[in-house]
Amino acid sequence: MYLARKFGYSVVCSALIFQPASAVAQRPDQRPQSATVTVNITPGRPANRFVPAHALGAGIDGHDKGVTDLQLTPQNIQTMLSAGLKSLTYRLRTELANEVWHWNPQGAWSDASRRQGYWISDFDSQSAISVSYGYRLPRRGNTIDQANNEGFSRLDDGDMTSFWKSSPYLDRQFTGESNSLHPQWIVIEFEKPVPINAIRVLWGVPFARRFKVQYGNFDDVSDIALNVPGTWQDFPRTVFAGSADAPSAGSGAVVVKLANAPIKARWLRILLTESSETNSAATSDIRDRLGFAMRELCAGTIDARGEFHDQIRHGTDRRGQTIIHVSSTDPWHRDGDQDDGIEQPGFDRVYRSGLTNGLPVMLPVGLLYDTPENVANEIRYLRSRGYEFDRVEIGEEPDGQYITPEDFGALYLQWAAAIHRVDPDLKLGGPSLQEIIPDDPTDKIRLGNSEWMRRFLVYLERRGRARDYSFFSFEWYPFDDVCEPVPPQLARAPRLLSDSLRDLARRGLSHRIPWIISEYGYSAYAARAEVNIEGALLNADIVGKFLTLGGDQAFLFGYTPGYVGREIPCTAGNNMLFSMDNQGDITHRFATYFGARMVTQEWLKPGNEEHEIYPAASNVRNGAGKELITAYAVHRPDGLWSVLLINKDPDHTYSVQTRFRNAKNGSASGLTGGVDFFQFSGAQYQLNSHPNNPYPIKADEPDHKVIQSFHPKRTKVSLPPYSLTVIRGGLNR
Fold this sequence. Notes:
The chain is α+β, with helices and mostly antiparallel strands and 733 residues long. The chain is 18% helix and 33% strand. It has an eight-stranded parallel beta sheet. Strands 2-32-34-35-43-38-41 form a seven-stranded antiparallel beta sheet. The radius of gyration is 27 Å and the shape is globular. The model is unreliable at 2-29 (pLDDT under 50).
C-alpha cells in the first residue's frame, strides 16, 4: 500500500464535526421508510461462483523496524485468524521505496571484493529468514517514493560526485530489441510554470550521445508514463547530438540553449535516445556501461549577459529539492546502503506462523529495482522449503513509479523467463496497479491506467508472450479526499468499482484470466472512516460487488495490528482491524473486524465449498441516483440463501422486504420459516469523539436472533442507519 496517492499534491479539506455513532441513530419520532430488495435468480447461471477460503483473504506488509516482532506474536496471530480471512498475500514495501529487496540476508555481490554491485540472495541457505531488508539505491533518480518518502534524487542533490543511472535491463543487450523502443527520460516537475530557455547538464558515464528536450503544461503527473501525442512540446532547439552537447569524457558541464526567449513550462522532459555505452569504472560487468548517467541537472534561463539562472532547487532532502521523476533506475548498490528503518517479515516466519492456513500464498518479486537472478532464487528457495504458492505478482504499483507500459513489459518478460526456468507452471501476473479509476472526461489527455494496461498487454501480445500473463491484480482505495463528507462516497463506491472494471475490459483486459484485488481499504490516507462503522460498510460493499462482477480474490489491507495515523490535519485513522500498544498487545477491535467476521462467518459458509452469488438491487436511491441500500445474495453449499444488506444512509432506518425473482419463468419467492438475522450498527459500535485519537467506546458483537415463521411476503427486516445486516434461511417453493 502506498502512503499517499500523489505526494506533493494537496487534498481538499473541509471542516468536519466528529460524532460518536449514536449521533446518527434513529430519532424516536422518525418512522422507518419502506424499501424492497430484489434478488434476480437465473437457475444454473449465477453472476459468479467462488470458494470463500480462496476468495477472501488479507495481506501482510513491511513495517518500521521492530514492529514485525510486536505484530506477529502467537496471541495476535490467533486474533487475526479469527477474522475468518483465509488466503494470504505478501506485500512488498521495498518496491514502493525505490529499494532493492534482499529477501534473504545471505547472498552474493557481483563485485564481491568490495561488497557492492548487483545482489543475488542465496536459495540454499539453512538459516530460517525472520526478517529481511531493502537497500537504498545510490544511483536513485526519483525525488519521491510511495513508502516512507525519505529518499531524494541524485540529479539535483547538489553533489557533483553522485549520479543517477538508468536501468541496464532496458538496453538491447537484455531486451533483445532496438533501444529506440525504450528511450529513457528525466522529467522535472515545477510547482508552477517557470520560464525556461536553457539547461545545464553535468554528465556521468555512460552519457547520452543523442537527446531531446521538451516541455509540457498538463496537470496530472501520471501522464508522464503514457506520453501520448500532445503531452510534450518541442523547444525551438530540441534535438542535440555530438561532443559539444555530450562530451566524450563524460565529465564536463554543458549549457544547452533551447530558445532565445524563455518559454513558461510546468514540466520539462529530457529524452535520452542514444548511449555512449562507456564505463569509467574498472569492471567487466556489462551492466555498468549500459543506459545513461547524469550527475547534476539545472534548468532555467540565460539572460542578455549570458548568465545562467537556475530554476531548480538542489538539496539532499525531498522537501529541499525540485521534484524529479525518471524512467528507471539502476539497481546497483552497496553493502552499506541497507535501510534499517523498514523491515519485511521473513518468508520462513510467515509460513510457519499459521497465517497461510495451509493455502497457497500470492507472493511478490521485485521488478523495477531488482535483478532476474535474485527473483529466480526466491522461487528456488520457496520451492526447496516446500512452501505453498501458486501465483507470483511481478512488481508492485508500477503506475506510482510512472514507468511506461512498454518498459514495464520489457522487464516483465525478462523476469517471467527467469522464473519459468525454475518453475514452468507457476502463474505470473500483476501488476498491482495503485489505482484503476476510469479516465477523467474533463482531463485534456483523458487517459488513465486502463490505457496503461492496454499498452502493456499489446506489448506482450506482439512478442508472442501473452501466456506469460496469467492474472490481473490491482489495489482499491477509492477515496483520496478523506476530508470530504463520507455518505456520498459510500453511496457511489459500488458504481465506481464497476465502472473502473468495465473500463479495463473495454480496453482489452480479458475476463478469461482471474482478476484480483491485491489490497483494499477506504483510502490510501489515514482517515477516521477507516476505524468507524463506515469502514466496515465499505469493505463489505467492496467484497460483495467485486464477487458479483466476477472477481476471483480480494485481499484486505490492514490485517496486522497497527497504530492510528494522522497524515492530513482534518482526520486520523488507519486501514486496520486492530490497534496495538507499544508492547504489541491488541487494545481495540474496530468495526472492520466485526464486519469481516459477519461476511466470512455468517453471510458465507466458512470453508472450501463453492458458493453462488446472484445479482440483487434495492429501490432506495439518493438524490444522485446512487443506491443507499446495497444487497448481495449467495446460495450456500448447505442449501441456504444468505443476503448481505448494507444501509449506507447515516440518517434513516428502512423497513425492507426481500424477494427473490426467477428471471427464467418470472416466479417470485422469498425466505421462509426460521431465518437467522445478524446485524451490526450503532447499537453495537460507537467511536469516541476525539479527532486525533479515535477508538471505540463500545464494540460489541453483532446482534443475532432467529426470526421464527418468517413470511416471504409479509415479514420485513429493519435496517438502522449505517448498518450491516445478514438474513439467512431457506426459500419457499
